[in-house]
Each structure stands twice: as structure tokens, then as C-alpha cells.
Design brief:
about 70 residues, mainly alpha, 4 helices, globular
Length: about 70
Amino acid sequence: MNIKNRIKMLAVSRGMTLKKLSEKLSDITNKNYSYNSLLGKLNRESLSLKEAFIIANILNYQLDFIDINK
């Protein structure tokens, strides 16, 4: 599953649209994230790790690095 579908699925599971997600992302970061700019980042798979952490937090999820050698 690509990042776009994953984030859309997680947002929907929280009852949130990508438009609302982009608004909350803008509020938190003090940067302009429109629906189209967020969708473009998701389509290009150019979301930064910082943005991914913020989105996860907005959706009440936690990103974590897991050692796959254990």
C-alpha cells in the first residue's frame, strides 16, 4: 500500500478528510498546506518524515522505528 492510500485510509478511520487534515497541518506548522498541495505530496510520495510524524499525531497515531532483526 502506498503512502497516499495509507494516509487516506487512516484519516477516514478517524472521520477526517484530506482537506481537514491539510487545514490542521497548516495550523500546527504555520505553513500553508492546501488540499491540493498535500495531495500532490502524497501522489509524488515526497512527504517529509517530519510531516509524517505531524500527520500521525493529528490522527492520534504514533510512528515508530522497529528493529526488524529481533
